[in-house]
Each structure stands twice: as C-alpha cells, then as structure tokens.
Design goal:
- About 40% of the residues lie in helices and about 20% in strands.
- The chain is built from ten helices and eleven strands.
- The strands form two sheets. It has an eight-stranded parallel β-barrel.
Length: about 250
C-alpha cells in the first residue's frame, strides 16, 4: 500500500509541474511581441485554440484567429446525414458517426465552451460579418463537393477560402475557378501542379526529404507543411518558402 501511495504522490507532483510548465509556456508566448514575418506564413490548425483557451474547431477559436496577423486558420469539413456541413476533426462526435447522424441529434452535445457542433455556414457568416482579414483553409474530409461549393458561393467567400484535400477534390474546385487556392495532399510534381493550375501541395515533411529551399519548391509551387509545432522548425520552413499549419500559431520576434 505504501508503494502505491508513493507512486500516486509522485504522479500528482509530476502533473503539477507539467501544469506549471504549460502555463508558463503560454504566458511566454503571449507576452512577447509576435514576429510579423513568420506569423504571416502561419495557418492556425483548428483555429487559435491553444492560446485562446477555447476548444479546437470552435467558432470562438476561429474568431480569435482574425486579428493575430496569421495567413489563415484551418478547419475540417464533414457532412451530416441530413446534409448539414459541419466542422469536426474526427468522423465521430460524442461517439456518433457524423455522416450517419442528423444534425439535431448532434447538436444536443456541446463543446467545452458550450457551443454546438459548428455549422460551416455559421463559420462563414461570422467571418464575413467581422470583415476578417485572414483566409479560411478548408480541409475537406467527407462531404458532397457540390454542396460545399454552393455554400461557398452563397456566403460569398470564394476569394477567401483555401482548399486542402485529395487530388480529386482539388481538381473539382479548380474547375470552379479557384485553382490557385487548391492544395493537394496527394503528391504530384511541381510541373503537374502547374499543368493542373493548382496552388501547390500540402505535405507532411516526414514523408519527404526536405533539404534546401530549391528542393522544397521543386516539390510544390507553393508548399504547405503540416503539422509543425516546434518554433525552430517553424522558422526553418518559413525561411524555406513554406506556409506552416501549426497548433502553436504564435512566434515571437
């Protein structure tokens, strides 16, 4: 019993130290002046949730991305059984499969800040009403592409969105006249990107040999890398001509 008790005490102490380190880390990031050059190349993964003290993929997290000098915020697009486009990273929401559930059954469950599962239409409308200067990076996961395009047109945000997804998804939206705003997560050469008119690729660095700036640009007309959270590595990719999707979208001078 004494051994178990000692282990519990050590574990509690470890959690306490970890909490202090996390708080100090967040305070440090928020107190220093941001580096505007680096910030302008960052895409906040699921919004500005880490430093904004709010849930990922929430409207609050997106709103807090508006005035930070970021290039964009990223969100995940899915569709309910009854055709509502929603924002959620995973295919399940509170153990319910989104594609097999009607929205009214999903909205009963709340995010940590009390929000319902965000509708993409609400995200767009808030974005437009606030005259936000950032872009919206749509990671298209599971939805009818025609429905997504119709909503983009309805909310008049086609000049503000970026599309990341499969090559076939990007080619669909490229035909709608926003080809340079489309970034394939399937690898194709820079020459193929140019032929298809795509903006570039969105890649995980671990899958490729990332060396000089020239080698990066050879992989893509405009590379986007994901998901990079280490400040030193973020700077390296930005200096190499990349845009960076990150959970830590705040870099000091």
């Amino acid at each position: 019993m004494r051994i178990v008790g000692s282990l519990e005490i050590l574990f509690i102490r470890f959690l306490g130290v970890l909490l202090v380190l996390l708080v100090l880390g967040c305070d440090r990031d928020l107190q220093g002046d941001p580096d505007p050059v680096v910030m302008s190349k960052l895409i906040a993964h699921q919004g500005y949730w880490l430093y904004g003290d709010c849930p990922k993929n929430s409207i609050e997290a997106f709103k807090k991305s508006y005035d930070k000098g970021l290039y964009a915020f990223e969100l995940d697009v899915r569709q309910t059984k009854d055709g509502i486009l929603v924002v959620c990273h995973d295919k399940n929401f509170f153990k319910r499969v989104i594609s097999e559930s009607n929205y009214k059954d999903l909205e009963r469950h709340k995010l940590e800040n009390g929000e319902k599962l965000p509708k993409l239409k609400d995200v767009f409308e808030n974005f437009v009403s606030q005259n936000a200067k950032v872009r919206i990076c749509l990671h298209v996961k599971s939805c009818k592409l025609d429905d997504l395009w119709n909503l983009i047109e309805l909310c008049d945000v086609k000049d503000k969105v970026m599309i990341i997804g499969s090559l076939s998804t990007c080619l669909f939206f490229a035909k709608k006249g926003i080809s340079e705003q489309c970034f394939s997560m399937d690898y194709i050469s820079a020459e193929q990107c140019a032929l298809k008119g795509l903006g570039g690729l969105c890649l995980q660095p671990s899958k490729y040999k990332w060396g000089t700036k020239d080698s990066l640009l050879a992989l893509s007309r405009l590379p986007i890398v994901w998901t990079i959270d280490n400040e030193k590595t973020i700077r390296q990719f930005v200096e190499s001509g990349c845009f960076v999707i990150t959970n830590t979208p705040y870099v000091e001078k």
